[in-house]
Design brief:
By secondary structure, the chain is mainly α. It has one domain: Four Helix Bundle (Hemerythrin (Met), subunit A) (Up-down Bundle), CATH 1.20.120. The chain has 7 helices and 3 strands, in the order ααβαααββαα. The longest helix has 30 residues.
């Protein structure tokens, strides 16, 4: 039997795979309804999300650096490229343990109004996965407006924080 900490770790990894599935649904929505519009708005947001997840995975034994992204425009222009990268990320997030997610990791980022300062802090892989999921939901909220304006149908919950969805369901049940 799996211990509770490993169950929570698996739930967090599953949540992040679900987030990537939501991104795949966005790609599919544009492929079927408005492929010519993908690069206008959805593509750049999805590239940003994808590259943040890739920064976490690519860290090796070094620091996570979300600012040192490739900014690969092929991802934002081509839904098939975005889909492939998302599928790869889902595979890479298929396993892990509580110990792995609790491991400390350095996170580096630029700060200051003009990016003139560099900050490094200690986090954990689990905390960074929580950040990435929240960050993706934020981008989904922004890109959903564009999708709706161009006839791309996306899930009702896309772009809503999990706490908001839970709150709305609790209100409906009451």
């Amino acid at each position: 039997m799996t211990n509770p900490a490993d169950q929570r770790a698996q739930a967090l990894l599953r949540f992040n795979r679900d987030i990537l599935d939501a991104a795949l649904a966005v790609v599919a929505g544009y492929e079927s309804a408005a492929p010519q519009r993908f690069a206008e708005h959805a593509g750049p947001h999805l590239r940003h999300v994808i590259e943040h997840y890739e920064a976490l995975i690519a860290r090796g034994n070094g620091a996570i650096d979300y600012d040192a992204r490739a900014r690969d425009t092929a991802v934002e222009r081509c839904p098939a490229v975005a889909r492939g990268r998302l599928e790869s990320l889902k595979t890479l997030l298929a396993g892990g343990s509580a110990a792995m997610l609790a491991a400390p990791v350095a996170v580096r980022t630029l700060g200051g109004v003009n990016g003139e300062q560099s900050f490094t802090t200690i986090s954990t892989l689990g905390r960074e996965l929580m950040f990435l999921a929240s960050h993706a939901v934020h981008h989904f909220a922004v890109l959903k407006l564009h999708a709706l304006a161009h006839g791309v149908t996306l899930a009702e919950e896309l772009g809503k924080a999990p706490a908001t969805v839970a709150h709305e369901r609790a209100k409906e049940a009451a």
